[in-house]
Specification:
This protein has 258 residues and is of the alpha/beta class. The chain has two domains: 195 residues, 2-enoyl-CoA Hydratase, Chain A, domain 1; 48 residues, Lyase 2-enoyl-coa Hydratase, Chain  A, domain 2 (Orthogonal Bundle). A six-stranded mixed β-sheet has the order 1-2-3-5-7-10, with helices on both faces. A four-stranded mixed β-sheet has the order 4-6-8-9. The model has no long low-confidence stretch (mean pLDDT 92). InterPro entries: ClpP/crotonase-like_dom_sf, Enoyl-CoA_hydra/iso, Enoyl-CoA_hydra_C. One of its GO terms (molecular function) is catalytic activity. It comes from Entotheonella factor.
Length: 258
């Protein structure tokens, strides 16, 4: 059986590629498990600093493999929402506090949108199409319940209610996508962005990502308390000593991630 996920590491940058091009990288049980394994591998590897998620062939990810779902239905296998979600999360895959970049090529529909959404930064090819198509097939997009935290509610409702894909440029205009580039420059742009992140202090990125996501639902007092605790942890690290020291000595900084 061919791998549904390809995992490649180039120095400190990991490239995670969904590899079911014949099915537009639709999410079946194999791909979901291998994506989970890939994210956990990346999260646990201290030598991996930034990961790029992309798709093989002409699509990023077309969403849930509905042929597999139809076969399950025909076999009398009752689908449950709890099968698709963690006990305390609406995410399809485990969370990592390390940076994730989506390099969106072709279609990113339904679960494909969810995979792009789980990433922190999104670079899209000019011809990419993105949408939340579940209502077309009497399904729900649980991940979209989080979207009003990041883009306007009216845009979320239009995406879900109409199930119509939007262009990469439109995704940029509503704030979902960070950059739009010609298709032949997509991976170069994603790699350049990842390389820029690798230059930054790894603990600063991880801790700020945690602060930003956890802080969305906190009041100011709760956010201040969390921030103080996290900042105290950072200031006790070797990197927090190395950064100012390298600046004072006018030399290249040497991050250790600890």
């Amino acid at each position: 059986m061919a791998a549904a996920i390809l995992y490649e590491q180039r120095d400190e940058i990991v490239i995670i590629t969904m590899n079911r091009p014949e099915a537009l990288n639709a999410i079946n049980r194999q791909l979901r498990q291998e994506m989970t394994d890939a994210i956990e591998r990346y999260d646990a590897d201290d030598s991996a600093r930034v990961a790029i998620v992309t798709g093989a062939g002409r699509a990023f990810c077309a969403g849930r493999d509905l042929k597999e779902r139809a076969a399950d239905n025909a076999a009398g296998v009752q689908a449950k929402g709890s099968d698709s979600l963690g006990a305390e999360t609406l995410a399809l895959f485990p969370r990592t506090w390390k940076p994730l970049i989506a390099a969106i090529n072709g279609y990113a529909m339904a679960g494909g949108w969810a995979i792009a959404q789980m990433c922190d930064l999104r670079v899209a090819a000019e011809d990419a199409k993105m949408g939340i198509a579940e209502s077309r097939w009497s399904l729900l997009p649980p991940f979209a319940a989080l979207l009003p935290k990041y883009i306007p509610m009216a845009n979320v409702l239009e995406l879900v209610f109409t199930a119509e894909p939007i262009s990469a440029q439109r995704a940029y205009e509503i704030g979902f996508v960070n950059r739009v580039v010609p298709g032949d420059q997509l991976m170069d742009e994603a790699m350049a962005l990842a390389s820029r992140l690798v230059e930054m202090a790894p603990l600063s990125l991880r801790y700020f990502k945690e602060m930003a996501y956890r802080g969305v639902d906190m009041n100011e007092a709760g956010l201040a308390s969390m921030t103080r605790n996290i900042y105290d942890m950072l200031l006790k690290s070797e990197d927090a000593v190395e950064g100012p020291k390298a600046f004072a000595e006018k030399r290249q900084v040497q991050w250790k991630g600890r």
